[in-house]
Automatic annotation (TrEMBL):
Keywords: Hydrolase. It comes from the Bacteria. GO terms for molecular function: hydrolase activity. Residues 1-236 form the CN hydrolase domain. CDD domains: R-amidase_like. The keyword Ribosomal protein does not apply. This is Carbon-nitrogen hydrolase family protein. InterPro entries: Aliph_Amidase/BUP, C-N_Hydrolase, C-N_Hydrolase_sf, RamA-like. SUPFAM superfamilies: Carbon-nitrogen hydrolase.
């Protein structure tokens, strides 16, 4: 299975522009043979839009989800994307994974909200989710979630081998892509796709450096600071020498 990952600027509240980019990404991903494309956190409507979330957030099954499903069907490629979800009076920083037919495979609400903006705008989620993706057990976390080892470990303990992570990591936090994501992948023997923004939005600069990291902590594909579409063949993981993989899960002791 091939997996695509998009790194690009935030649509900054421009919904029409956002859907134009999503369509372009799905088209390019499908042309490259990918079965799933991963896009950044809160791509709909844009991450640094705290004054607009309440007005723009949509419910599950709303217009955004219907349009995303149509695009997946049109291009024959699945999509994992972050968006602002409304459930009654409650807002969530959410991500949905749809397959190539537009069917929802998973819906996840971010547990570890980051900083004053997110904690003011959103309510934290309270559960993990996992699902089958092209013969692999997969799961979704969002940005700050992946920096907490116990969340990744909990999913690995449930048999997850592929973790899809929409993110909005600011500039100055390269530690996450360079160190924490590879560490989470290696200690749990999983693959992590970490999809970030680049550029700036309302005075917030993003760090880029999106990456698809294998269970040996080595990148299958990685981006720099600018716009990029990464495509990695996950079947290449089968060629990794098992002797190079971590044994923490096997050797872990409880005290």
């Amino acid at each position: 299975m091939k997996l695509a990952l998009y790194q690009g600027p935030s649509p900054a509240g421009d919904i029409d522009r956002a859907f134009e980019v999503i369509a372009r990404v799905l088209s390019a991903a499908a042309t490259g043979g990918a079965r799933m494309a991963v896009m950044p956190e809160l791509f709909l409507p844009g991450y640094n839009q705290p004054d607009r979330f309440a007005d723009l957030a949509q419910p599950q099954g709303g217009d955004w989800q219907k349009r995303l499903a149509d695009l997946c069907r049109s291009h024959g490629c699945g999509l994992t994307i972050g968006w602002a979800e409304r459930a009654g009076d409650t807002l969530y920083n959410a991500a949905t994974c749809l397959d190539a037919s537009g069917a929802v495979l998973a819906h996840y609400r971010k547990i570890q909200l980051f900083g004053p903006m997110e904690n003011t705008a959103f309510t934290p989620g309270d559960s993990h989710c996992s699902f089958d993706l092209e013969g692999r057990r997969a799961a979704v976390l969002i940005c700050y979630d992946v920096e907490f080892a116990h969340h990744v470990q909990a999913l690995a303990d449930r048999g997850v081998t592929l973790l899809l992570v929409p993110t909005a990591n600011p500039a100055g936090f390269d530690l996450v892509a360079d160190t924490l994501v590879p560490a989470r992948a290696a200690e749990n023997r999983i693959t992590i796709a970490y999809a970030n923004f680049c550029g700036t939005e309302n005075g917030l600069s993003y760090g880029g450096k999106s990456v698809i990291t294998g269970p040996d902590a080595q990148p299958l594909a990685s981006a720099g600071r600018g716009e990029a579409l990464l495509i990695a063949d996950l079947d290449a993981i089968a060629t990794i020498d098992p002797a190079t993989l971590g044994t923490q899960a096997r050797d872990r002791r409880q005290v």
